[in-house]
Write a structure and sequence with these properties.
36% of the residues lie in helices and 20% in strands. The protein is an alpha+beta fold and 210 residues long. It has one domain: NADH Oxidase (3-Layer(aba) Sandwich), CATH 3.40.109.10. Helix 3 runs antiparallel to helix 4. The C terminus is likely disordered. Bound molecules: flavin mononucleotide. The site of flavin mononucleotide (FMN) has 8 residues, from loops.
Length: 210
């Protein structure tokens, strides 16, 4: 009995702090700032793919705004900023940064820590991975992923950030899937590096006049 008690004590002593540490790695995000950014027409007029980022990091508020814009809950009924065919809500996003990888829990508006491992070298401080739970022959998940991608594009142009939708991944797809602990039914569809532009964005209207 005494041995059992000591064993339990050892479990509490060694395992609980580890579990607590894992929990503290989750990031409860601040509410999105709904009055920030350019007008929707300005954001549309400035949307473009940018592939050149400065080292400047995104602060937690900007990250919170970004993931919410991508696929956050925007109504009391739990529906999202992104339209989704047949209200499937099969899209999930993952965030990778210098601290590791996180799952965006949209219902809780929280980043759930997955791993400290890197999702691949990239110039941008943050990469968003867009995934979908999808059957092999399903097409809607790819369309739905494109809608989340456009949300990210418009958020970036509206907030003075730089991004590009990429089908090509920063490292081997299978490795990323393993790192993000994706289920066998989950497809990795697109990724979006997001950060501040290295160089001034090209003014496409000025370019067109040349
Ligand atoms: C589904 C999809 C996949 C894409 N994959 C890549 C990619 O792997 N690498 C890349 O540099 N750009 C990628 N792009 C960005 C396109 O090249 C870009 O949108 C196109 O050149 C038009 O430029 P714009 O976005 O500035 O208008 C992708 C875009 C889409 C919609």
């Amino acid at each position: 009995m005494k041995k059992l008690f000591l064993a339990l004590l050892a479990v509490c002593f060694f395992c609980l702090p580890a579990l607590a540490a894992q929990k503290t790695n989750n990031i409860k995000l601040p509410a999105p700032q709904l009055t920030k950014g350019k007008t929707i027409m300005q954001a549309l007029s400035e949307r473009q793919s940018v592939r050149d980022w400065s080292k400047k990091d995104l602060d937690t508020q900007t990250l919170a705004n970004l993931v919410w814009a991508a696929t956050g809950v925007n109504r009391p009924n739990g529906k999202r900023t992104n339209a989704t065919a047949m209200d499937l809500r099969e899209i999930d996003i993952y965030v990778c940064n210098k601290n590791g990888a996180y799952f965006y829990n949209a219902k809780k508006h929280m980043l759930e820590f997955i791993t400290k491992e890197s999702c691949g070298e990239d110039k941008a401080p943050v990469i968003i991975f867009i995934t979908a739970k999808a059957k092999e022959d399903a097409t809607y998940p790819y369309i739905d992923a494109g809608i989340v991608s456009e949300n990210i594009y418009l958020f970036a142009s509206g907030m003075g950030l730089a991004t590009v939708a990429r089908g090509t991944m920063p490292m081997d797809k299978a490795k990323i899937a393993k790192l993000l602990k994706l289920g066998a039914d989950t497809k990795l569809i697109l990724n979006h590096p997001v950060g501040y532009a290295q160089s001034e964005k090209k003014d496409s209207k000025k370019e067109a006049k040349k």
